[in-house]
């Protein structure tokens, strides 16, 4: 099941085209990174999904259905710098958050434990480090036990220790079965925590897919045959492959950079009874490309 499917989304702010025909889908259980430099349209995209903004055209589905208020309630969000009462403690702040959301009051102890703030739950918010404040905001997004979490730049402004804490927390939530959609301008961050990524540049989707296919420097070999399922099964047995993924009409096979040999791969498939009708080596240069884009935009 797709948690979110975005179909040809456009958003204009007057003459500014913030999104230009963006389409992708977020698989259940993934940690899905929306990666792009400042101004690429990440926040706009999240705003549309969460019904804070209206798309100029295009549509999206939540849980494979037209979005409704009830479906949106199943999403926990962290959209901007957390706004809590400075003179109240964590429990008091979360009690207010639960009252506003009209759910999750019974979860307060559990979410504070999840984000590792139970020791400090009776300390005033004003005494928290930035990292603790951000973790409290994540705790708030977890009230009501949503299956899906949307985080906009969750590590923004944190020091290295705070960043690691948030990363570990995201991984923990993912292990618990949550689907996490997060916007980030940091390639490193997406690479470290995300399973999937969509790369945005000035409102255009450059590419999307598994992180291990898109961000890591690897050789990807595109292969095709009449029976793609059988091809997939056989390629998984090929010595030295790092990953095999169905991609539309092709099966992509990932190798460490410089280790893909097309002739040997072709022979292997043929010996297993499969005749390839497509075979192409694609070098992984997106990482370099992404840095260039980021630099151009700064
Ligand atoms: P950042 O990380 O800096 O928030 P972003 O990738 O989230 O960037 P957006 O905030 O979605 O990007 O902005 C996309 C484009 O739309 C930018 O050119 C921005 O200036 C423009 N934009 C965003 N909000 C508005 C608005 N309310 N009015 C006019 N232009 C806007």
TrEMBL record:
UniProt keyword Oxidoreductase present: no
Keyword Nucleotide-binding: yes
One Pfam family it belongs to: ABC_tran
Xref: SUPFAM superfamilies: P-loop containing nucleoside triphosphate hydrolases
Keywords assigned by UniProt, alphabetized: ATP-binding, Nucleotide-binding, Transport
GO MF annotations in UniProt: ATP binding; ATP hydrolysis activity
Domain of life where this protein originates: Bacteria
Domain ABC transporter: 4-227
Family from the record: Belongs to the ABC transporter superfamily.
Name the UniProt record assigns to this protein: ABC transporter ATP-binding protein
The species this protein was found in: Niastella populi
């Amino acid at each position: 099941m797709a948690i979110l499917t975005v179909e040809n989304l456009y958003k204009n702010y007057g003459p500014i085209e913030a999104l230009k025909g963006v389409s992708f889908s977020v698989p259940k259980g993934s940690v899905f990174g929306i990666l792009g430099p400042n101004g690429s349209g990440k926040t706009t995209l999240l705003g549309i999904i969460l019904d804070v903004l209206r798309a100029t055209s295009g549509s999206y589905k939540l849980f494979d259905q037209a979005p409704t208020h009830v479906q949106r309630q199943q999403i926990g969000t962290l959209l901007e710098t957390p706004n809590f009462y400075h003179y109240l403690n964590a429990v008091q702040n979360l009690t207010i958050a639960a009252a506003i959301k009209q759910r999750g009051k019974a979860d307060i102890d559990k979410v504070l434990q999840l984000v590792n703030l139970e020791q400090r739950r009776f300390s005033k918010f004003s005494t928290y480090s930035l990292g603790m404040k951000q973790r409290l905001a994540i705790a708030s997004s977890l009230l009501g036990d949503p299956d899906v979490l949307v985080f906009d730049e969750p590590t923004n402004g944190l020091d290295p220790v705070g960043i690691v804490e948030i990363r570990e927390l995201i991984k923990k939530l993912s292990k618990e079965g949550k689907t996490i959609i997060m916007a980030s301008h940091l390639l490193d961050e997406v690479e470290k925590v995300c399973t999937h990524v969509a790369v945005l540049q000035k409102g255009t989707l450059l590419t999307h897919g598994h992180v291990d296919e898109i961000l890591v420097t690897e050789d990807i070999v595109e292969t095709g045959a009449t029976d793609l399922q059988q091809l997939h099964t056989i390629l998984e047995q090929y010595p030295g492959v790092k990953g095999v993924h169905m991609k539309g009409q092709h099966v992509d096979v990932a190798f460490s950079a410089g280790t893909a040999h097309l002739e040997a791969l072709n022979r292997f498939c043929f010996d297993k009874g499969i005749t390839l009708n497509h075979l192409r080596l694609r070098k992984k240069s997106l990482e370099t490309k992404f840095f260039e884009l980021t630099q151009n935009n700064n």
